Here is the input.
Amino acid sequence: MENDGIRWISVAGEKNIATLNLAKGNNVYGEKLIRQGGEEYRLWDPFRSKLAAALKKGLKKMPITNGTKVLYLGASTGTTVSHVSDIVGSSGIVFAVEPATRVARELIQNVASNRKNVVPIIEDARRPQAYFSVFGKIDVVYCDIAQPDQTDIAIANCAAYLKKGGVMLLVIKTRSIDVTMDPKAVVVQEAQRLERNGFAIDQILNLEPFDKDHGMIHCTYGP
Ligand code: SAM
Here is the structure.
């Protein structure tokens, strides 16, 4: 799947995913910069980013495109946030929530300071009412926080900010939820929790071999 910011680039005979670099000349986590057709692209490593893994594993509809307004929960140092920033471009915005100050510092220094469309929010996603910089409704909520109650946290954030008909991409780390349960059963259980809370499930992906015991749910909010 390609959109304005995403390209599949062949390197040594292998198809790699890449994004159009919004911060020319800068890389974020050691990824290669590639020039093609007068543009600069950053290779997007599916072993480092679950969104790239989902695209490699056949995500049918990529909800993040040029101009999308994204609420990103669990930004960490900004590896995936930086690619999302490339894709939404200067007409979109990424509100990046991360409570751990050590990694948030890297997010600010390496990503937000070079990209006007990334707004760091140093907060716990359990307190969505505390995000004073988020304005208006959000098109896409992306959640990757690896917490046992992550689905409930994601739902509370959608209730506060996601527009009706908006999309959530929820990363499920099955071992964070229940180590004793079959990973597939954990994903199904979380999908059912989403359905009970007004989401329609569009696609469920297993992210192996890029991420062991991780799934991703693509779902749509409201009728
Ligand atoms: N999404 C990142 C990426 O692809 O570059 C990796 C995220 S990492 C697996 C999980 C992150 O969620 C950690 O940085 C952690 O500090 C953050 N986190 C954990 N609990 C959180 C919470 N309650 N609210 C927001 N973020 C949280």
About this structure: The helical segments are 50-56, 79-88, 101-111, 150-161, 174-177, 183-196. The longest helix spans residues 183-196. The mean pLDDT is 94. The chain is about 25% helix and 30% strand.
